[in-house]
């Protein structure tokens, strides 16, 4: 009998035993399932009620977090919790058959609706209050302070002191309002009203001192502003009172009602489940006795079939397995299994003989491969040492050059001032050229040092808050000499009041300076525009900085190459000035990756270029390092993108 036949007989016996056991099991299952169905329904109702109770606790926590912090995530969590409770109540309503459970669930649904309505009303009140404070009250306070400042400068010592006291009272009023909204302390509300009255009293007293033309009108305008502030404060107080009332009269009672009704359903379900559990336990005892008896007989027959298969198949196969294991471990000096008969096991034995011969040949090839691998590792170590030596050379060279170049710049400035004083204009121009060239060399040294730090992994991100509009003005002023050198105009296209940015100011500024420097180098007698705008991406604020020029441009296929280190694009400028070491755009790419942003490049030969940096308004450390790539890897966002080109005349300023 072949091995396959022996295994088939063994499996046939096992299958017959399994079928017999299955028939017994089906009979047992049919008998038990009648009791299990009722028990399972009660248990499911109890578990669903418990899940609904937990979801209610989570809903209250999420609502409390949102009312405390006002973030979108907690509101989303609260909405999901509310939907979860609604689904579980709907499930309980379908599963419950007891009229008392139906009544309790109807009350729970009504309480949940009232609770959620109160939550939405409170959220609307808070949004209205915050909007009123930001868009109405804060501008009123700012205008009032401005008007009081005019009054302070329009009179004598007394009127100046009164205007200053009124300004302090307005600021204290605003501070007490913020405290009242945050802490709900009546003392803050009283102090807020007191400071408002104090400001009005100072204004009235000022009216008796100031007689300069136009001051009466300003005092009247301040009075109107205070009246409007009073009206807004009253409305803010009303929203606070209404919110506290909703919390006490709607949220808390309805939450307690939901919990009480769900608990009532759960208690009844637990009581029914306990009764069914006792009945099921007694019935299962008899069923189990029968199943164990039949299963014992079947087990003995199965063990006999296993022993027969093991004797005729298992032992020879185990011998083959030992031989294959030895070969897998690289051992070739072991006794080979004997070749007997002409069945499948004999064929396996012949295969093991051939496998050992193959293993011996493979071992020889592995030894040769180890020799080649060792040589490659030595070459890799030499390359890494050379790269480290290059980085150390750049750092040492930069440190050695920075100090003498700084001395040259300072000496050139002193000498140029002295030559201008003596009227030696021609020599002063030459000295100015020396100073300009030294500054260019210092910038080159700084770029080399920054690149060396990036390669060594020693570049840190230093965070601070800074105004974007001021940054644009500063960058333009520092780039104007370079633009004038190439007869270019340099303008800013950005809306006023873009706001603040929390990021590395030095890296953002240097990135924009490098982009402007690059645009100036490759644009002759043209125009360069530095633009900025604030955008939203996935609910997060971002700033888009755009540098557009009318230079000669470059093909889109060269975009990735321009951001490689020590690579320079285009021909030598006609001015004859040096173009640098090819690190400007490389540093821009590294800075952008470190700050979590991305770059968009658009250009065509002869039509200019536009490079856009998109940076988060609030810095968040990147989850992983991002390489300079044109295409996304997996689901990651590419750092560098190439877009279709539009000439500057088609762009909206």
TrEMBL record:
Localization? Membrane
- Highest taxon of source: Bacteria
Reaction catalysis annotation: ATP + protein L-histidine = ADP + protein N-phospho-L-histidine
Question: Which EC main class describes this enzyme?
Answer: transferase
**Pfam families, per database record:** HAMP (PF00672), HATPase_c (PF02518), HisKA (PF00512)
The terms describing its cellular component in GO are: plasma membrane
UniProt domain Histidine kinase: residue ranges? 396-619
Transmembrane residues, as ranges? 7-31, 287-309
| Coiled coil (residue ranges) | 345-372
**Which InterPro entries does the UniProt record give?**
HAMP_dom, HATPase_C_sf, HATPase_dom, HBM, His_kinase_dom, HisK_dim/P_dom, HisK_dim/P_sf, Sig_transdc_His_kin-like_C
Documented EC number(s)? 2.7.13.3
- Main localization of the protein described in the UniProt heading: membrane
**Ranges where the HAMP domain occurs:** 311-364
**CDD domains linked:** HAMP, HisKA
Q: GO molecular-function annotation terms?
A: histidine phosphotransfer kinase activity; phosphorelay sensor kinase activity
The alphabetized UniProt keywords are: Coiled coil, Kinase, Membrane, Phosphoprotein, Transferase, Transmembrane, Transmembrane helix
Gene3D superfamilies documented for this protein? 1.10.287.130, 6.10.340.10, Histidine kinase-like ATPase, C-terminal domain (3.30.565.10)
User: Does the record bear Oxidoreductase in its keywords?
Assistant: no
Which protein is depicted?
histidine kinase
